[in-house]
Predict the 3D structure of the following.
Amino acid sequence: MFGAFFSDPSATNVHPVTLNLTPPEIYGELTAGDLNWTCAGGFATETQIWYNVLEDGTFLMCQIIHSAVGLWYPNVQFTFRMYNPTTKEHTWRSTNVSGFVSPPPGLNDKRSCKSDHFTIKFNSAGDGEEESYSIIANAADDLQVTLEVTRPSSILGFKVGKGPKGGYTYFGADVEKPEGYVFHKFWPRTSCKGHIIHKGQAIPAVGHGMFVHAIQGMRPNLVASKWNFATFQSEDNGGVAAVMMEFTTTDGFGQKGVGSGGVKVNVGGLVVEGKLVAVTGETIWPGETTQANPDFQSRAIHHDAKLDKDTSYEAPQRITY
């Protein structure tokens, strides 16, 4: 009788979004609600990130992070990063903000949000128009951001897996009552236009990039021991983009319960000639090099790792995606 009250300690307690999908099932269409801010309580970290590569090669990132920690009031940050490969100038700002709300007053759309330091407005696609985000941010006293990030109508957004559970990896023995979850939803190729005011100088911000909405629905230190992320953007062949995200579970979550972790969950997508042509996903259990289903290969492989004495991290010198 006691078996009815206690779960099997050797039962699988991670349920990857990439597991057991067939080719027709792997692409999940994004619905309007998929990009809503959830602002979940408990222990959850939610983020939206806009990555862009400008015409001169400058890398630009704007990120909002909403972190809930138990009963405490959520912490919200606006993070900005800009790197110019020609001048080697690196600009980094991370600002704690107050007054965060979603949706903003006067708007009935939880894809938009506002704080005392920024306003992010989602613009729905109308007749002859395309979906976009308008970003206005005062990242610091010497740094202001004005950007319009647009998803071309010909390039679909995606999640891995269809329906309301698409995009989700669940943690815990009971997938219907999970201990936590992770999700990722993507716009794999976007265009941006606007400008950055840095130390009084106006910098044109025109280029291409990607957008991701992600949640770690449990304490971050329990979700993953490692992460790999890559984005590639090119103007060749009518517009090419690739995105990949991979995490490796901690020792507590695996195919045989606690102590069997190290499961790799990898998702990605590919844009060619201005169209989404592939969505990829793969689950690799510890000790495996390939999965049973040969239809998908989606992985990140580190080469020539060197020990970083300061962090004890085995830093790869090359990575194959």
